Each structure stands twice: as C-alpha cells, then as structure tokens.
Amino acid sequence: VQLVESGGGLVQAGGSLRLSCAASGILFSIYDMAWYRQAPGKQRELAAYITSSGGSTRYANSVKGRFTISRDNAKRMMYLQMNSLEPEDTAVYYCNAKRTSDHIDYWGQGTQVTVSS
C-alpha cells in the first residue's frame, strides 16, 4: 500500500496550494479518505474528510470555507484545494485512507506546507 502526497511548498498568506494524494495497492473506491495535518509542537488533527463515494465531506472549523477536498476514484487520487492560506495553516499534511469497519488506517509520508506572513 502506498499513499504519496505532493503539492506542498512555501506560499505567502492569502495564496493557494493544491495537494494531491496518489493511492496504490488498495481498492481506492471503498476507502474513506482524509487529510490530516500536524503543526510543530501540536497534535495531528483532521483537516478534511471525504467518504468513499465522494458524496459527503466534512471539515475542521478552522479550514471551512477555505479548503475543498475532492477525489477521483477512477484515477485513485485525492485532492485538497487550499485557498486564502494563513500562517496558522503551516503544517505537515498527511493523506489517510481508512475503513473503520475493518479497523484499517493507511498513511502517507506527508508533505510540508509553509505559509509566510
């Protein structure tokens, strides 16, 4: 199983980035997916979540209205469009695939997002 994130980088406050997660080794379409993030000195937190079909999403209050999660099951890809970025969004962003019913959790290696003020 591999989850590979890309698209991180350095951006000024107010800017945008689009993160991508490429999945292999799993039947992607049956997994709920999520983006988590971990800022220096803080616990990892859920940023955005999308169900296996893509029909339902939820967001952390801190990113609601600025971030959009999406997926393409045919391409086995997940995305996070991040707009109006703030310095507080600086973190390592992790791709997560889960099947709660089977107690399965897979993680990517993370991609760094740094927002300068």
Question: What's the gist of this structure?
Answer:
By secondary structure, the chain is mainly β. It has no helices and eleven strands.
Give the SSE layout:
Blueprint: E1 2-6, E2 9-12, E3 17-24, E4 32-38, E5 45-50, E6 57-59, E7 67-72, E8 77-82, E9 91-99, E10 104-107, E11 111-116
Architecture overview:
It is a single chain. Strands 2, 4, 5, 6, 9, 10 and 11 form a seven-stranded mixed β-sheet that branches. A four-stranded antiparallel β-sheet has the order 1-3-8-7, with no helix packed on it. The chain has 117 residues and is mainly beta. The mean pLDDT is 97. The protein is globular and about 40 Å long. The chain is built from no helices and eleven strands.
Main beta sheet, described?
Answer: 7 strands, mixed
**Percent helix:** under 10%
Mean pLDDT: 97
Name the overall outline: globular
CA gyration radius, whole angstroms: 13 Å
Q: What is the SS-derived class?
A: mainly beta
The end-to-end span amounts to 37 Å
The counted number of beta strands is 11
Helix run count? 0
Poorly predicted spans? none
Oligomer: single chain
| H/E element order | EEEEEEEEEEE
How much strand? over 45%
List keywords for this structure.
single chain, 0% helix, 117 residues, 7-stranded mixed beta sheet, 4-stranded antiparallel beta sheet, 11 strands, mainly beta
